[in-house]
Structures are given as C-alpha cells and as structure tokens.
Design a protein that fits this description.
Strand order of the largest sheet of chain A: 1-2-3-5-4
GO molecular function, one term (chains A, B, C, D, E, F): tRNA binding
InterPro entries (chains A, B, C, D, E, F): ExoRNase_PH_dom1, ExoRNase_PH_dom2, ExoRNase_PH_dom2_sf, PNPase/RNase_PH_dom_sf, Ribosomal_Su5_D2-typ_SF, RNase_PH, RNase_PH_bac-type, RNase_PH_CS
Structural class of chain A: alpha+beta
Subunit structure (chains A, B, C, D, E, F): Homohexameric ring arranged as a trimer of dimers.
CATH architecture of chain A: 2-Layer Sandwich
Shape of chain A: globular
Distance between the termini of chain A: 36 Å
Radius of gyration of chain A: 18 Å
Oligomer: homohexamer
Largest sheet of chain A: 5 strands, mixed
CATH topology of chain A: Ribosomal Protein S5, domain 2
Largest interface: C-E, 35 and 36 residues
CATH superfamily of chain A: GHMP Kinase, N-terminal domain
Catalytic activity (chains A, B, C, D, E, F): tRNA(n+1) + phosphate = tRNA(n) + a ribonucleoside 5'-diphosphate
Number of domains of chain A: 1
Family (chains A, B, C, D, E, F): Belongs to the RNase PH family.
C-alpha cells in the first residue's frame, strides 16, 4: 500500500497553470501533487560563446529550490556561494532533455533559458521541472512564431518526465517524498511524445535491481508520461 | 499623472494570501500590484553563535529574486556565486525592521528566518517583503503560542513598509517600476502599528530634495501603511 | 551627558589632510575625532561597460576597513574572500552621494573611483568617508581642469555627511563609537552645500522614533555639515 | 566499423596496476585502452557529521582530471575555484556505486575516500574510475581485515561499470573518445558481481532511442563487466 | 648611477613612527623612502586549532595593499574575492621571519597577528613590512611584560629585512620602484640582530647571477639591516 | 647519519620517463626517490592579454598535488575552491625558473603551460617539478622545431633545481620528507646548465644560519644539479 493510497500505476494530480508570471516569454506553475515548480522561459537574441556564428540556437536550464520548499529549511545556495552537485546535475538533465526535442538550427541564433524554481517540494521536482519546461518553452516558441521571428516550428515533439521506483518491493509510478526517501531503487525516465526515450536512469538506493524491474518501471513511466502529455497539450492550447 | 492612473496618495491593490506553502511554519504570498513576493517563516530551535546562552531569540531575513522576476532575465545569484550588494542591503533592512517589533527575550532561544523570494517584480519588492514578513512571522508565532512553546506573545505591534518618491515633481505613494526608474528621489518608510518609525530612508536619484518633501513623503507613507496594517490583520486572522 | 563631554550639537574635531599619498590624482586623510579614513580619488580614462559610448562619466566608491582599525581585530575581507553586506551597503551609499553632486556628462567618458580605507574607527566611518571623498574628488577634478582635460567643472556643489542619533533620550550630533553602540536610533544625513538633502536615513536600533525626532536630527545634521563644508573648502584650497 | 577496429561487443584492453602509489591504504592505476585513472583509497577513522554516533561507516569519492589529460588543455578546477557540474555528477555516481556493495554498519565508524584522478582521457573515465575504485577499496579493506581492525568483510560483492552506446546505428561496448563524441545515444551501466544492476543510465545525445536498444546495451554491458570482474579479482589477488 | 642619486650601498631615508593607531596592542608606520606601511600587532588569547593545548603561542602575518598605493589603481582583493599569489607569498614570508626570532613556548597560548597594510608603494614593501612588524611586535610584547601577562621576554633578538639587486650591472641596496622594475636580479635578505640569516632569497629577473654576486648582495644587506636595527631600537625605546 | 643512509652529498635515485602521457606536446614522469611528479607541456597559439601584440611568447606553470600523494590525505584544492598560498608560491617559482632560460621573443606569440602534478610526495616536489618541466618543455619545443613552427631554438640552456638543508647540523643534498620536516634550515637552488643561478632561496626553519652555511649548501646544489642535467639530457635525447 502506498502512503498516499494511490494505486501502483497512479500518478498524483498534475496541473499546469500557464502564464503564471507576466515578464517571461513563457511561464507555467506545474504541480505534481504537492510538488510545485515555477518554470519560466526567457528568450535572448544571442547564443553562448561556443555557438556564435554557427547558425543555430541553444536551450539551457537552471534549477533552484527556495530555502523553505522542503520540510526543514535548507541553506540558500546564493548565500553559500555555490550550487550543490545535486542542483547542477538536475539542471544539466533538464537542459539535455529539452534540447532532445528541439531542432537547434531552426531556432536560429537565440538562446532560451528555462528557469525551474521549486516553490514547494514533495518528491519529483526534476521530473515536474522537465514536464513544465516543455510547456514554458512551447508558449515562448509560439510567441516567436506568432511574431514571425520564427517561420518554422523548431519543437519536434513533446517531452515529459516522471519518476518511478521500487517501493516495498512493488514498482510504483511518480514517487512522492515519503516513497522517494525509502525506495529500494528509483529513477527518472524522460520520454517523448512520439514514443522514444531521451533518458533512462535508474539507481539502486538500498536494494539492487534487475533487468525485469528496469523494464517494468519503464512501462510505468510510459503510463505516467502519456497523462502528462495530455495535460501539457491542454495547458499549451494545442 | 501617474502611468498607472493612480492618485498620488493611492496604493496599488495589495493582497496577502496566507499559508501559500505547506512546509513553513508561516507563509504568505504578498502582492503589491504586480509585485509578488513569497515569504516563509522558518522556526529553528537554536540561535546563531553570537547569541548562544543569552536567553534570547533572533529574527533574520534572506531575500532573493527569481531570475525572470524582472523585465529582462537577471543572473541567478547562486550561479554567480555571490549575493549582490543590493540583495544584502535589502535583507539586512528586512531583518532589522522585523526585530524592531519583536521582544527577543520573550521569543526564547530560537531563531525565525524570513525568506522573501520575489516571484514577480514591479517596484517595491523590499517594502512588500517587510509587510509580508510580518504576516508570516505572525502566523509562525501564533503556532508557537498555540502549541504552548511560547506563553507570552513576543510581537509587540505590527510593522509595514511602503515606498514613496517624487515623481515628475509630485510626491507619490507606492511607486511601481515605471515610476521608480524615473523618480527624482525615492525612499522607503518602515512604520509600526502604534504610530512610530522604524526606518526612514530617502535618496536623491536625479534631483535633490528638501525637508518639506521628506515630511510630505513620510505623511504619504502613513496613509499607505495604515492600509497595509488593515490587510495584514485580516490575513493573520486578527 | 555625552561620554566625550561634548554638547549635543557639537561635532568632534574634524580635519582634512590633503595630498596624504602621492600616486593618486586626489587624496586626503580625513579625521572625525579618532575616526581616520584615507580617501584616494583615481581617474581612469574609461567607463564601466554599461556606460560605454554614452558620452558621460561615472563616479564610484569602494570602502574597506583595516583589520585592526577597530577595538578588536576583525577578519580581513580579502582573506575571507568576500565583502560583508555592511561594506557593500556603505560603498553603495558613498558612490550615490558623490554622484548626486557631479554632472556626469560634463565629466566626459572617464571614471573616478573613490577608495575609502578606514585606518582607525571610532564611529562615523561612512560619514567621514563621504565628507573626505568630496575633497579627494575636488582635488582630482581640479587637476583635470588645470591640465585642460576638462574645460567645465562637473562638480555642482559640496556634499558632506554626518551621523546623528538619539542617545539616552537626547538627540545628538556626530556619534562616536560609545554613543553609536548604545543609541536608541541613529542615522546618517548626506547634505549638499546649497542646502538640499541627498540622503536621509534613520534607523531604530533599540527604540522607535517619531517624526519630530527625525526633524530634530536633520537640523543637527545641518549644523554639523556646515562645519564640514567650511573645512572641506579650506582643505581643497577654495 | 568502429574507428578502433574493435568488434561491437569488444572491450578495449583493460588493466589494473595495483599499489601504484605507496602512501594510500589502497591504490591502483586502471587503464581502459588509453584512458588511465589513478585511484587511491584513503581510510580515516572518523565519519562525516551527519553519521556521527550512528555506528556505521561511509564510502565517498572525489574525481578530478589533470588539465592536460585531454586533447586540448582544460582549465585546472583548483585555479578556477570550483568543480564543474560534470565533475560533481561523476563523483556522486562513483560514491553511490561503491556504497551499493558495501555493508556500511560492518565498516564501523570510519570513512573511505576514493580519489579518482584521470591521468589520460580517451572516453569512459567514469566507468574506469568506478571499476578501479573497487580494486583500491578491496586492497584497503583487506588491510583492515589483516590488521584485525575489521573482523567481518563489509564488501558484499564486486562492482564494475562500462559505457555503451549507439554508434552509427550499431550498439557498441566501451566507447572511446572518438565514438563517444559522435554517438547517437550513450550511457553507463554499473553492475555487480552477483548479476544485479546498481545504476543504468542512458541518454540520447543526437538520436532518441527505444526500449529494445536499452536492453541490447544492457546486455553488452554484462559482457564488458564480466571481463572487468575477472581482471579486478586478479588485481586484488582473489 | 641610481635614479635617486643614491650610492650603491645607501639606504633610502627610513623612519618608524610608533603608536600610529590607538586600538592595536602595537602599531607603527614604517617608511622606506616613499614606501609607507602601517603595521599593527594584535594580541589574541587563543591559538590556531593545530596548536591548541601544546603550551606555545603563534605569530602570524597578513599583508595587503590599498588599491591606490601604486602608480595605477589595482583591484581591491576583497572585491575580487581572493588574495593574489604574490600577497600570500609575502604574508607567509613575514610570518616566518618574525617567528624565527620569537620563542613560541615563552609566548604562552596566545597569537599575535601582524597586519601589514601598504599605504603607499615605491618598492620594498615586503622588507619594510618585516622591519616594521618587529617594532609593532616589540611594543605589543612590552605591554604584555608590563602587565605581567608575560614574565619572560619571548623575543630573542631583532629581525629586519632589506632588498638588494643588480641594477645595470651594479649591486645596489634597498631598491626603489624604478630600480626594482628594471633590475637584472633582485632579492630579499632577512637578518637578525645577532648576525644570522633568517632568509636569503635572490631571483634572476632578466639576467642570471653567480655566487660572487650573491655574496656581494648579502654584504650590502648587512649594511642596510644594521641601519634598520638602530632605527628599530630607537622607535621601540630600547 | 641520514635516515635513508645516503652520504651528505648524495642525491636520491632520479629518473625521467619521457612521453608518459600522449596528448600533451611534451610530458615526463620525473622521480626524485619516492617523489613522483607528472609534468606536461601544453602549447597554445596565443598569449595572455598583457602580452598580446608584443611579438613574444610566455611560459607559465601550474602546480597541484593529488589528495593522497602525501602520508595523510589532504583536501582537494578544487573542492575547497581555492589554491593554497603554498601552491601559488610554488607555481610562481616554477614559471619564473623556466622563463629564465627561454628567449621569449624567439618563442613567438605562443604560450607553453607546464602542469606539474604530484602523484606521490616525499620531499622536494618543487625541485622535481622544475627539473621535470625543463624536459617536458624541451620535448615540446623540439616538436615545434621539427614541424618548422619555430626556426630558432628559444631554449638557451638547461635549468634544474634541488633542495639542500642543514639536517642535524650537517649540510645535506636533496632532502626527503623525513629530513625536510626536521631540518634546521632548508632551501632550494635553481641553477642553469651554463653555471649560473636563477634562484637561491634559503630559510631558517628552526635554527638560523650564516653565510658560510649558505655557500656550502650552494655548492652541494651544484653537485646535485650536475647529476640532474645529465639525466635531463638523456631523457630529452640530447
């Protein structure tokens, strides 16, 4: 039995509240249960130095957690003077996941930065961030298309992510904090709207796992992502 | 005429949405027009080293702005590895303002940290932060009183803050970004519920000012803070 | 009774020793009683990036305190690897105060940096810094005028600063360390030679204050600044 | 055809040179083809603060690359003043992988740090590091057993890692730099001597992948790890 | 011919102005010609962690240069966030030199920190710092002896330093900035009042040197240090 | 009697293993007894900003020590976020020593960086680094000559370094860790193949020294460097 009473293949309630803030070219408040992440997409008409003059764009991400997003207050990374290894690992994953569905040459020489700031954390902040980032990116790119700054859509398909894990011996979908902190193995799957995989990552936390379990978790992830894809399309008005 | 069409002594719509997040002992989303700040109060049962064993508590604040809270994206302070001088100046002001209305010995040997994170900025983020911080603190202290961790209320009175400035020669209340960026002088007043002043600070940005103008702005601030005090009481259920 | 035996409206002995060092374009050792600050003005024929090509100059300040300027040794900020919030707040104030009396377009595309280094501290280091910075700036600008690098004087008027506070219930002028550390409220006023205000800032440290007290302190500040203005003119040979 | 002429399921020559340095409790120079990593295991009789008094030990890792381990010289992280996100991600993975096969309570209140320093890089530095770290750890733990500091072996089984990827449409084992920099997808598998998985991680770099490809790469990884396990045992004298 | 017109074995005018500041237990403004360094000695009744409980004291030094001590303004190290290699090298040398003449067990479990801050630089700042540090230390230790905190003098003898170099083929004593920046070789000698050497360091800058030149410079250093020793004794009232 | 049983003027076994790694333009693993340093020379076709357009090259060095190169594990400088004063002092010395034998205009507008990474430490890491750096530089420059990128050899002569010290009253050559940690005085001499001195540096650690001792150590250094010169030439194929 899951602490939340959910079935093994049941997602938490997910929602995307588009245009949550007004300055960013794209923004969304994404909720996976009690996990809430504000994602903004900022378009800049320049690319990082290593891409200058190469006729293509860039999509990157930054991630942060408000100090009291969690049960006990964490130190503010700006005050400590550096981002943790965990933060950097997550923001690298988000950027990589979004770039996997964007045709960078079609984006032109511009950069879109996806800022994912966790307002409240209850497990799955990185998967909520990736899923929300697609919506913020979609909104920002639609504005570029509407304004004719872009003539062709550089977004090839949707991308979404969900966590899965072995909780008390049972493979379950979309772990919340209680499950995440005691799961034997857990991981994250980043899938695309056309049925492919961008990233599969599964880690033994307390118990090792085998090939069969890896496959069962991947299948759960497909169930979860399909639900997320539908919600993303609705939020983005597609 | 103000860009927003407001009268010189007219505040923007202000609102306090208490309990915006669930982990913190106190939290509120405060809005001054389009400026929105999430404030959380975190209670810890320990004090900083310089206060250990002195039988009194501490109230401190940290301030941050999400990278895309503003019109153009700013660098993330955690990624830069340091907080700007502006950030530090603001968080020192917030802490000082709240401590002015708290009886620290009555708080006992515990620290309350007020995290003020700007979700969206349109001028007046520091005054919204101070005003919201009082509500978050009030909620957190009420929980301590309810649980009998505290037997006497350490909060002496309310505290609120508002910005004022000389905009195109006219003293105006509660500057928004458009006004703030072109005001001749502007400043912030931090006032208490019992009619006193915690901090008065007025700076010439483009035009010098005189004593009479300082007084007129202080009087505008009283008008604004009275409105904030009423909203604070309502949000805190008093 | 003040610890020093001074009358409430009496400044400490103030002195400006111009040309204290030889490399800087302007330099002065300013003393407010036992507070001694070395201020140098350095002229560079370039402006910061945000001003390039805009046809105007910039005046900025940096502030530091030697580790043993104070009663007990403080950590060296260079060794700690960062400037404190207090340091940054003070250097922002000094820069802002000086810019308020300089016509930046008349300065041309050059930057003048005012380095204020506290050799010995006894309260009022920021006000001594501002007051001394004007002298160092005046000397440096006079050299630019003498050498015809400038044809019009960009300095509009004098600027000086002094601290005031409520000490044991009495408003007093120019607080020394003993007064500063036990004042109920204190603040700093930055005034100009033509009678205007650049910055008024008053903070309740232990006791709140009211409008009348704010005004009395402002009037004390005028008395103090008039004395400083006279000493500045003498030091600058005007 | 692979640039190196290897068959798709063929590892590079691998070797473990134990006791490469003399001060560390365990050390090994591991080579996967031209990739060479020096791994040392340092035993300290204390644990990090979060584990004090809990009756169990800790295994952690640090990773670094000599500036000219690579084709072009990279900046020295010590000189830049921070470790890259990539470095932190890798050292977190190494630590996690080794902890997965260690019974921490049996280790007692001591910490073993595995320093993995890349002398020469040609792809697969993180998998060579993990594989070598097991040998260094084994040597260090054997010394603790020999000296009776430990009475029970805390190492449950072997752990090894290898990279796999889709190179020009073909799943291949143990990518070298040439393959790694142009693979469509690649990832790392961390497997244990008793047939389980510690970590499976596969990322689409240029082309998305599907479930079948994930499985084929996992099977290649088993082939590679079996070869590594044999070499580890020989190096550790088992 | 030296730019200053001095004879090869002629020092610049040197002076020690004791008790230049009032808070430090010892202080002196030392001048070697236009080079002026403020040195303070701060006594703390504790030792660094590595010496705790060992029944002996410590003498250490920090060094800094005010940004405009030099011909052109240098960046403030506190603002850059780190001390340069040169600064660290110098402060290590100063500490080592003073410790060489102090009997640390006789000092008891206390630390004396010598802060050497360069007010104005014209070559030889490290040698002026060492020479001045002895005076500040002497004054501070005399206070400890006067107050009976110490009963035996821990200072064994004097220590002084001077630079020497080969300028246009001629060995010269006490290089000023003009000489220093074009010397073929230069170095620093730290000598004691009883005729021994604490540190000899000579570096080829543009021309290599031989054993005979090393000896001639050492002999010049003796001449210079004898003059400094006399001035130190006078300043310290011995 | 020396702990190692060596005669006072006897070096440890020294060896240079050229081309230890494959990516660098020059590389060598240098051993002075148990001290082993990997030195690589990296050629870049650009110079640092202060030399741009001046028609000459630059030779610089960086130094690091693997965390477990020493008896007890030291902190990784990259993880601490800064290089120690000792590291910076050493790398400045290495760069200076190599530049002393290079004709920088003949090198053309290119920079050669010598990375000296200590694999295992047993005293004398800086002198082994300098001696090895010459070999790595020689190999790299020979490649530039072979490829006709250079037509004239910019290396004037050899450079080598060795430590000497007074151990239990006896002047000895090439101190190992045991001697180094208890020597009364020790220092480093950097000598050239044509009999000159680049750097002589001798420091009293526990006992002061005199001129005669300085000379005796210098003479020991000549014996040691002659042996190193022969080994360097052999390693570089000269």
């Amino acid at each position: 039995m899951r602490p939340s009473g959910r079935a093994p293949d049941q997602m938490r309630d997910i929602s995307f509240e588009p245009n949550f803030t007004r300055h960013a070219e794209g923004s969304v408040l994404v909720s996976f249960g009690d996990t809430r992440v504000l994602v903004t997409a900022s378009v800049e008409e320049k690319v990082p130095p290593f891409l200058r003059g190469k006729g293509k764009g860039w999509v990157t991400a930054e991630y942060g957690m408000l100090p009291r997003a969690t049960h006990t207050r964490g130190n503010r990374e700006a005050a400590k003077g550096k981002q943790s290894g965990r933060t950097q690992e997550i923001q690298r994953l988000i950027g990589r996941s979004l770039r996997a569905v964007v045709d960078l040459p079609k984006l032109g020489e511009r950069q879109i930065t996806l800022d994912c700031d966790v307002i409240q954390a209850d497990g799955g902040t990185r998967t909520a961030s990736i899923s929300g980032a697609w919506v913020a990116l979609r909104i920002a790119v639609d504005k570029l298309l509407d304004s004719k700054a872009l003539t062709e859509d550089p977004i090839r398909t949707q991308v979404a992510a969900v966590s899965c894990g072995i909780f008390k011996g049972t493979p379950v979908l979309d772990l919340d904090y209680d499950e995440d902190s005691s799961a034997g193995s857990d991981g994250n799957f980043v899938l695309t709207g056309d049925g492919n995989i961008v990233e599969a990552q599964l880690t033994a936390e307390g118990e090792l796992f085998d090939e069969e379990q890896l496959l069962r978790l991947l299948r759960l992830a497909r169930i979860g992502c399909d639900e997320i894809f539908a919600a993303q399309r609705k939020a983005a008005g597609k």
